[in-house]
Write the structure tokens for this entry.
Amino acid sequence: MRRATAILACAMALVAGRTVLAQEPAVIAQTVTIDGRAVTDPGVLDLIETRPGKPFSQTDVRESIAHLVGLGRFEDVVVSRDAVPGGIALAYALIPSRIVRTIAFKGDVGIPDRDLHDRIKERFGSTPSLARLPDLLSYLKTIYRDEGYNAPKLVARRDLEGPAHDELVIDVEAGARLHIRRIEAEGNTPDGLASIPSKLRLTTGDVYRKAEVDARLNAYVTDLRSRGYYEARADHELRPTADGTTGDVVVNVDAGAHVTVVFEGDEVPSRLRRDLVPIEREGSLDEDLLEDSANRIRGYFQAQGCRDADVSYTRTPRNGELALVFHVTKGPQFHVAAVNVTGTKAVPLAELLPRLKTKTAEPFVRSTVDADVATIEEAYHRRGYTEVKVTPTVLPVPGGGSPVPLSVELAVVEGPATIVSSIEIVGAHSVPEADLRAGLGSKPGLPFYAPQVALDRDAIVLALLNRGYKSAVVDARVRASADRRTAALVFTVSEGAQVFVGHILVVGNVRTSADTIRRELELAPGQPLSYSAVSDSQRKISALGLFRRVRISELDLGTPNERDLLVSVEEAPTTTLGYGGGVEGGRVLRQEEETGAAKEVFEIAPRGFVEFGRRNLFGRNQSLNLFARASLRSRATTSAIEPGEPLPTGFTFRDYRVLGTYRAPKAFSTPADFLLTGFLEQGVRSSFDFTRKGARVELARHITQALSVSGRYVIERNNVFDERFAAADQPLIDRLFPQVRLSTVSGSVIRDTRDDALTPSRGELLGVDGDLAARSIGSEVGFIKLFTQGFMYRRLPGRRGVIFASGARLGIATGFDRAVTEVDADGNPVPGPDGQPIVQTVNDLPASERFFAGGDTSVRGYALDRLGTAATIDRNGFPVGGNAVIVLNGELRIPVWKDIGVVGFMDAGNVWAHVSDFAFGDIRPTTGFGLRYKSPIGPLRVDLGFKLARQTQPDGSLERLTALHISLGQAF
């Protein structure tokens, strides 16, 4: 109100002070201030229509005030003008609105602050306007009364406090909390009114809480309905006493009549009765519900082939109760003995028959036959046969039987085919006709299809809307020839006035800069107001992930053919905190105490994570994220021992990872996202432990919604320790470089069309990653590495929703030769027989970069990393890793009941020491089954894999037949 008054007063003052001249004086000088400080923000200055050097215009002043007020940032706008030599000087004084970012409750609050803040945010958003302060206080008083504070006093300090002057303080005197003095029950209930307090677990002296009483009443009503009182209702009223410290709770219960549902005639399965007749769930006996129930029962039997099923119902009073009697006559059952389609010439039977739902040897269902009639007619309509008729005939098959066999014949009378002879667009003067034709699906010479004509009309309207013709109207007419063989299409266009974008106002952004929001807009001032551009802009701003709500609306300020756009946003919290835990279990390797050989054991490893994020840094959609996770592992499986040495006991957090990531979308004025990541990691493999620390710089870009590319540079230092390899089988590179610096450039291309990243049911994921490490860019060893992967997901036909998932992964790598002088433990060169230092040539990959296979996300018939050829497994049975790997997966995911499902899978793969060693005959197959549970934190997975071709291990024993895995998330 104050803002509107200021605008009106300013306009009146300008009108009253106007001198009637043939020519308005020019604006010589103009100032814009906020709290006395000059404004330099272009987003504000661009909204002012008056300009130095232009003639003064009251219309420009009014529009300027409207634009500034529309920003929502100013409580008042005061415009003054003074006469100066040669014209006038204008001054805009902007009085900013005080923004409420936080609300503080002081005094006798009574209710936890967090509960109050959550309720306010749910109703008024994260930054409530001061204009809604009366509503906010009224809402808070309702909350207090519902919590038993009968006479709360709340006073808000309108002058904002806090260091940033953005804190609204509400002084609270909650007062005494109201206790229940007496409990009265009214109405009727089979339990007797005296039992109501005990049924509701209410006693005198209890603190009154409305939500708690309502919840207990709802539970009692549910109980009554489960006992046959299907129309039971209950509510309550609080009657405070004069002193406001106690009150009477008056409970009104109306149980209604006891209803008995009786099924007479043919049997209705008891397990289906509540779903077919949902009066208990609906709490109603109205005629519409009962009629629907009868139709559901009838439809149930008809779906089983009882085409003549009949169901009726009656209400019958019995001994003071109400009997609801359903009379069921299902009649004989029919099944389809034959299905014939006759009269088809234009559409091949081979195309029609697979589309039909009526199948031989299945129950006869009339609605299915009707659907098949519509299917055939639609197939003809798409070919231009507008007058096709399909007549179903159902006849009993001689000889009878039970179920009664029926023959279904679908007789087709095709009629003439209609072809589009011409398409004419009339009335379009400003938009080229070629642009309007570009979106048409109908073409001369193609079959006429009425629904396509409606789509074409909409396409023309959309093309006009996207050029700013907001009032465009398109009429579509079809002129068919007398013989119905041709049809001329005429689209009559009425363009109306073209509307352009005036100003673009951004409101609601507190931390986010307006430039960040404007950068996502597909529109600019002076452009036609495009419908699609508005929708795309709203979608792109929402995709930033910075806002709870985004809305783009139009403002009509009276300027012909021009609309201002108001971009309203509500910011989401800038700080996020997440944490969680889980468990994984599977077969892993540990050393035998006597021999040091590998032994498979089942290990459970609890794990937890915590994640802290800060988004929208500097108001520019930049974010900072810190992630840490750790697993509790047994020391016996993470430590190396000498033969005869006892295994260590206890547990350790040796498996952990810490990541810090800075992300800047659209960095350096490009479409690419910039990521800077620092990492510290310690991990446990089957044959060794390792640490990694370093930094990664990455540029990533989405080419399309499904296709993305990225380039990375990584500098890291890896340290391998506690190796469980046999000393003689340890790769040379691990002995010469137990600590190695890697400098790597990488690139990847990913195409992802999955419908869900966590539990996909359709789509594909294809990816190619390439890494290059070289001494010329700072790496101590060099290699080239390529890893490709592809996954496919398909929902199989049928009602169960079975999903087939398959995947293939292939990795190949090779190291670059490097001559290295062998040194002893003190770092001195080791002399050879000739007295010269021994020089070794190294071309293997470091342990952290080699490929491994086997485990819960790889080949599930094997323990972690256990799969490999003889050259990649040392003499004690520990995996060494290799330069080539292949992993193949196939899985059927079958829902069973609610969130529980089962899977059957086949996996295969192997690891080779060198790419040249690759042979298809070495691929090892496995199979198995598993259990899935869709938990709130992701799919809980238990898999049991079986080896299909067990081999002899280095110690002479046969490989273990099975491997059990427990984890979170899908295998692939």
